[in-house]
Amino acid sequence: DMGGMGAADRDGHPPDPAGNRIARDDPAMMQRLDRNAFIETQCAQPLSSAILKRGQLSAMRQDVTAALRDYDQAIALNPQEAAGYLNKGILFFEQGEVVRARDWISQAVAFEETSSLAYFYQGRLDARESKFESAAAAYDQSIHLSKNFIDAYRYRAAVFVSLAKHARAMEDYRTILELD
């Protein structure tokens, strides 16, 4: 069914905003829809970015309700952008809600596999649950994506100590000293 709101069809065409079936062989209609989708995306990005910043400020002020509301609004405006999912996951992590944090952080990774911070928080979640091998792998990916991410080295070193991989922990501590 190609009618109704939803994701782009299998050829990458946006849905008809009115929910009508679209004649895919009408080039003028497809061009208008593609242009409208582009304009909506371009307008949504700065707005969702501002809403994310407001949510981060609310989170810093410990206003969890306002932060979650802003993150949800940013996700609704720009559902393909990982930042809203990641910020929501980090907020849940900081609140000690591991299951909810993992769900949102996993969604962030699914949308942006190059997010060093998302992998970092996956590692933190795994370490919190004593899944040290998995945590080390997440920190490895975080460091692979951001070679100067000192906290990733620091937390990975702690995981290596828990795994009795002391030589690897020492390597990370030396790297931290070199970077700092």
Descriptive notes:
The protein is elongated. The protein is built from 8 helices and no strands. Mean pLDDT is 83; it is low at 1-24 and 33-43. The protein has 180 residues and is an all-alpha fold. Helix 1 runs parallel beside helix 3 and helix 2 (64-77) runs antiparallel to helix 3 (82-94).
Question: What fraction strand?
Answer: under 5%
Termini separation (Å)?
A: 56 Å
What does the average pLDDT come to?
Answer: 83
**Shape label:** elongated
Please state the CA-atom Rg, rounded to the nearest Å.
Answer: 21 Å
- How many individual helices? 8
What composes the largest sheet? Answer: none
Question: What is the H/E order?
Answer: HHHHHHHH
Class derived from helix and strand content:
mainly alpha
Residue stretches low in confidence (pLDDT < 50, at least 5 long) are 1-24, 33-43
Percent range of helical residues: over 70%
Total number of beta strands: 0
